[in-house]
């Protein structure tokens, strides 16, 4: 009931002041306004055009649409006290002329109002005048069409609203999932850095311990030499204190010992006794980064989960995809491909040379190549250049074709394919990556951004491996 009232209120509202009509007038384009609102609008606009459709009015002073006036006054509660509102409206509609109430009324479509065929018919000879029953029927049909249009519009709005609700729920899941994966990736990096830190600190401590032992050995040897020299010095000093007869009898041995020790080479400090700080700190970050490169991997193509069909499941690192057994509950966002089990890359190319490899494994049905940004993502289309696809296809096991329905011959079955794009020359080429044997090249003129493209046909084989994006070993 509330919706019907709202609809009636909209029908009886002036498009200028947004209030219920007061003395409404209807233009030849069928749009209606308050008489005073229309005159003010025309004065400000300095023309006689319809405020809505801008069509020029055929009349400078349009007549009051009494039917619409009675309905508006009834709806707004502006009738005189007396009978019920329904009775008032019916009375006003039925009795057009108090002088000739028994004569059936007619309706002027040009002025959009009822008229008495006795009193006013001569004034409307050049107008389109029809029986009031026909006018009411036609106007109701128009209003029903307007109602249907409004209902359709409301249904579309509800569908968009539902999609937005799905998007909100999905973005919350994306937030949690992506946050978890980011933390996992950084945890791996942190573990690597922690282990590398411990390894380099251990190497530093090991060097310090080794050099400490070496210095300790040298110090012990020096201390033994000092002790021996001290003993010899004491012996010589004692010898020098002896009486001449005793001195002459013993000095020879003491002198021989002293001279033997004096002839020994002087002790030298060992080089490299200090810790090699430069070895531990020099280019430390760079050397750690170089070692880190062995732990991380770069993919030239990252798949976009927001474009993936409901049946496709992407890996956490977004470099591989498989066809699932169940349809995922995903929002029908504009980017998503809903008709076929397809997915696009996250970044497109509009210039230059690019290459990557796709490991298709033992999948019996697949398409590999590129697609333009404006492909039809919701409706029927064919993977051909005409519809914006440049790809190599396997629709039956070991039977290959291009998008132009031409068979492509290969010497051995394809397990891995190299895709190569030269955008500026308009070439998409496919190769065996092992020996770069050419498979097929399509030449065209590209006018918009191209995205890496994959289609995975339903295989029904749970053992079928994922299709993976791999880095190209040969750089362009």
TrEMBL record:
Residues 92-132 form the B box-type domain. One of its GO terms (molecular function) is zinc ion binding. Pfam families: PRY (PF13765), SPRY (PF00622), zf-B_box (PF00643), zf-RING_UBOX (PF13445). Keywords: Metal-binding, Zinc, Zinc-finger. The lineage of its organism: Eukaryota, Metazoa, Chordata, Craniata, Vertebrata. InterPro entries: B30.2/SPRY, B30.2/SPRY_sf, Butyrophylin_SPRY, ConA-like_dom_sf, PRY, SPRY_dom, TRIM/RBCC, Znf-RING_euk. It comes from the Eukaryota. Residues 281-472 form the B30.2/SPRY domain. Residues 14-54 form the RING-type domain. PANTHER family: E3 UBIQUITIN-PROTEIN LIGASE TRIM (PTHR24103). This is Nuclear factor 7, brain-like. The keyword Magnesium does not apply. The keyword Ribosomal protein does not apply. Gene3D superfamilies: 2.60.120.920, Classic Zinc Finger, Zinc/RING finger domain, C3HC4 (zinc finger).
């Amino acid at each position: 009931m509330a919706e019907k009232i709202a609809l009636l209120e909209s029908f009886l509202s002036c498009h200028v002041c947004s209030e219920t009509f007061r003395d409404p007038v209807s233009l030849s384009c069928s749009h209606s306004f308050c008489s005073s609102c229309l005159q003010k609008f025309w004065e400000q606009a300095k023309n006689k055009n319809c405020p809505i459709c801008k069509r020029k009015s055929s009349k400078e002073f349009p007549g009051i649409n009494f039917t619409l006036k009675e309905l508006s006054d009834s709806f707004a509660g502006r009738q005189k006290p007396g009978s019920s509102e329904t009775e008032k409206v019916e009375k006003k509609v039925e009795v057009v002329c108090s002088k000739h109430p028994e004569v059936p009324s007619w309706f002027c479509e040009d002025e959009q109002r009822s008229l008495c065929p006795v009193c006013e018919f001569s004034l409307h000879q050049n107008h389109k005048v029809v029986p009031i029953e026909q006018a009411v029927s036609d106007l109701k049909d128009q209003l029903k069409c307007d109602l249907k249009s409004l209902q359709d519009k409301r249904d579309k709005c509800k569908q968009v609203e539902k999609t937005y609700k799905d998007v909100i729920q999905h973005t919350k899941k994306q937030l949690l999932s992506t946050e978890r994966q980011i933390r996992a990736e950084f945890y791996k990096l942190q573990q690597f850095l922690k282990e590398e830190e411990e390894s380099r600190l251990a190497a530093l401590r090991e060097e310090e311990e080794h050099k400490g032992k070496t210095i300790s050995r040298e110090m012990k040897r020096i201390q033994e030499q000092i002790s021996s020299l001290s003993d010899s010095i004491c012996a010589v000093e004692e010898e020098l204190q002896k009486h001449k007869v005793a001195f002459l009898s013993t000095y020879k041995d003491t002198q021989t010992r002293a001279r033997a020790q004096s002839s020994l080479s002087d002790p030298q400090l060992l080089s490299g006794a200090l810790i090699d700080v430069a070895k531990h700190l020099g280019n430390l970050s760079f050397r750690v980064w170089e070692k880190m490169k062995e732990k991380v991997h770069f993919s030239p193509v990252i798949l976009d989960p927001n474009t993936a069909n409901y049946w496709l499941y992407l890996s956490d690192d977004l470099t591989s995809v498989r066809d699932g057994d169940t349809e995922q509950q995903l929002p029908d966002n504009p980017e998503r491909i809903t008709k076929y089990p397809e997915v696009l890359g996250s970044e497109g190319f509009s210039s230059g040379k690019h290459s990557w490899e796709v490991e298709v494994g033992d999948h019996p049905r697949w398409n590999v190549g590129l697609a333009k940004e404006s492909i039809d993502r919701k409706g029927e289309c064919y993977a051909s250049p005409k519809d914006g696809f440049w790809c190599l296809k396997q629709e039956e096991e070991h039977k290959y074709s291009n998008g132009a329905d031409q068979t492509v011959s290969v010497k051995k079955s394809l397990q891995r394919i190299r895709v190569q794009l030269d955008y500026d020359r308009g070439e998409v080429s496919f190769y065996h990556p092992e020996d770069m044997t050419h498979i097929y090249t399509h030449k065209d003129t590209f006018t918009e951004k191209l995205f890496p493209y994959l289609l995975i046909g339903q295989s029904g084989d749970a053992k079928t491996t994922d299709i993976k994006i791999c880095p190209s070993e040969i750089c362009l």
